[in-house]
Amino acid sequence: MKVNRQLTFLFLAFAALCIFLYAVSGILLPFVLGILVAYMLDPVVDRFEARKVPRGFSSAVVLAIFFSIIIATCVVVIPLIFQQVQGFATKLPTYINTFNHEIWPNIRHKLSHISPALAEQLDDKTKDISDNLGNVVEISLAQIFHSSLWLLNIASLILITPIVSFYLLRDWDVSLAKLYSLLPQNYAPVIKKQARRIDDTISAFMRGQLTVCFLIGIFYAAGLTIVGLNFGFLIGLITGILTFIPYVGPLVGALAGLTIAFLQFGDDWYNIALVAAIFIGGQNIESNFVTPKIVGDKIGVHPAWLIFSMLAGASLLGFLGVIIAVPMTAVIAVLVRFAVEQYEHSSYYIRNRNTEHLEQPLNYKAEPGSLLAIDEPPQPKRKRVFRHRKKAAKKAK
């Protein structure tokens, strides 16, 4: 009963925490980012602290360097992004016109030989999409860049995230020690072991995968820009950011890059092949060299579950859900593996595993040598048993 009460209390407390976080999810983004920044920079501050540098001073210095790099990168990158987004919005009508008058007629001509009805339906839908696509993109961009809520979120990130990061980073070890002291003493070693596993999984993704995204984004952006692809920097940057989603990032980047290449170069297959070669080379470098060296196999989360968790997080909490999807998936994966380990060491699993053979039905006789035949130990011959009994009886007389 005592264990059941403890589990009930923990479950109710966890449910209440989830409800509270969902209710205040609109203001959580700067706090979540502050937690992630403090988590990623804690090993650096620990090294300074090991060299007798005060933790408060080292936290301030490390955060100042970190946010200075972020600000400098934004100053360089954001104008390029705005320029390429505006250029894309300007050239979108030209691309739509090229598709309608040069590319689609050839596709429709080939489809008409296979299925005229399908070609007619696709022709009508293509016209509708072409008529509405330009207006949708222009309206969406206008809403993004002129939204006061967007500006408010950016301002809150700039002002609140560094403050939250500093206080969390300064008191990180103290907070963890206090949290560990509140654990139930009977279960503290097990909880700490699982917490270390969760830390290994999250750190491998947060510190390793972000480095992979950064390097691959630079590769794609530089390669596509050198080739001369329009909006190559923007496409490469988006591809690098989406690399942390397995298979989705390279696929989205390749589709966007090759579509722009076809619209820009037309029949120039040499430049189109260069664009395709950049994506193929980038994918091979990422999967065979960069990710194994930096991340390794410490994540332990199947890509399908990772994609599902990100989509579920986006549907529930938007961009905030995407950010917390990876840590939550890591926590769930570690807990599931722990539950499986406990099951494999339980008496129920061991008892079933030791039952190697099922009893045969009484009215069934398996053929000798068949797969259903059960090997029984050889029985001693009755004659030998009787002889031993006779000898024993003679000695007794």
List keywords for this structure.
mainly alpha; about 400 residues
Q: Give the mean pLDDT.
A: 76
Give the helices and strands as they follow along the chain.
HHHHHHHHHHHHHH
- Work out the strand percent: under 5%
What percentage of residues falls in helices of 4 or more residues? Answer: over 70%
Let me know the number of strands.
0
Largest sheet: none
| Class based on secondary structure composition and strand pairing | mainly alpha
Number of domains: 2
Radius of gyration: 32 Å
Q: So how many helices?
A: 14
The span between the termini is 66 Å
Shape: globular
- Extract low-pLDDT stretches: 356-378
Account of the 3D structure:
The protein has 2 domains: 153 residues, no CATH class; 168 residues. 82% of the residues lie in helices and 0% in strands. The chain has 14 helices and no strands. Helix 7 packs antiparallel against helix 8, helix 7 packs antiparallel against helix 10 and helix 7 packs across helix 12. About 6% of the residues have low confidence.
Can you lay out the helices and strands and say which pair or pack?
Blueprint: H1 2-23, H2 29-50, H3 55-114, H4 116-145, H5 148-170, H6 172-181, H7 188-227, H8 232-241, H9 248-265, H10 269-294, H11 303-317, H12 319-344, H13 347-354, H14 382-396
Structure, briefly:
The protein has 397 residues and is mostly helical. It is 82% helix and 0% strand. It folds into 2 domains: 24-176, no CATH class; 183-350.
